[in-house]
Each structure stands twice: as C-alpha cells, then as structure tokens.
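Dear colleagues,

As part of the handover before I leave the project, I'm documenting each prediction I ran so the next person doesn't have to rerun anything. This entry is a single chain, and its sequence is reproduced below.
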Amino acid sequence: MTDEEAQQLEERHREKMARRKEVQDAEVASKTVAEKGLLMVHTGKGKGKSTAAFGLALRMIGRGRRVGVGPFTPAPWAPGARPALARFGGALVEWHTMGEGFTWETQDRARDVAACRRAWEQAAALMADEELGLLVLDELNIALRYEYLSLQEVLGGLGARPPALHVVVTGRNAPPGLVEAADLVTEMTLVKHHFAAGVRAQEGIEF
C-alpha cells in the first residue's frame, strides 16, 4: 500500500466513524429517562445466566451500592460467587440461600413449594429495603416453571418494588408473562457445552 493509498484509507475511516458518531450521539440524546429500576431476565439453555447476574452485582458494589441475593436453588451447591461477594462485607452484600436443592433431588413437591415460599418472602423483604441497589433472584424462573410460586404474585411484588431498585431474575424457561414485564431480557443460547463430552461440573466454572 502506497502512502497515498494509506492516507485515503485513513480519511475514509475517519469519515465513516464521524457519521457513526453522529448517529450514535443522536440515539443517546433521544433517551429521556435518566434513571429507572430495571427488571432484567437472564434465561435460555446456554451457560452464563447466573454468572452474568453476579457480574452485575460486582458492578453495583463497585459503585458503592448494596446488593441482595436470593438463590431459589440449590443450597447443596455452594456457588463460588458467595464467598467472593462476602469479602465485601454485610454492609454491601446480603445473601440468603433459601432453596433446598434441585427439584429432582428433593423429589418432594410440598417441600419444594415451602422452600420457594420462604425464599419469596425473603425476596419481598429485600425489595422493601430502600437502600438496596440490586437484587439477584437466582433461579427464580425454575420456581415459576414448576408453579411453586404464582406468577401473578411474583409480578405484583416486582411491580411494587422501589422505583430505583434493579432486579435480575435467572433460570431457564422464563415464563412469557415475566418476559413481557421485563425491561431487559437476555437469552443465553447453547452452541456447545463440555458436559456433553463427559466433563463434570467444576469449581470455579459451574459453581
């Protein structure tokens, strides 16, 4: 490439980026809502739903805001995120493990329903905390899928939360009603998973 060709390439790039910036600036300027507590849903068959939620928790903590976590399943699997977040202390992180395990492990619907009921009551208490910046309801979608909790009750509670509180709900098979109510829905798509090749769940990766 000659010097002249390189200069022309640079000029074309500069012009392209200037147009792109103009479009982007106009798009940003069109947004008039400065702050709003978001209802976010991470669903789908792919890996990373809870991981992304805990990433949001770290971001919120990094801004000095309090985070609450209410896992609905499974207590026997202690996620590595818990001791990591605990290092920030109770002033910034409030973690409640209410689930008793995967539903196929307990094999007791009444027990699962009772555990999810306790978890939801705790979640409601956390949502009433005006100082909380983010609430992670990990695997709540599982409780809704098996109808351990009423979708209408959950939507009512989420809708009555403080206006500035962000909530992220994780788990496969998010019900259509929750998807419709959410501000942000991300579906994790499974392309390839090491589990199919016989690799077990590993500390630091799956939990």
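Strands lie at 39-43, 66-69, 93-95, 132-137, 166-170, 184-187. The chain has two domains: 1-32, 37-197.

All the best with the project,
I.
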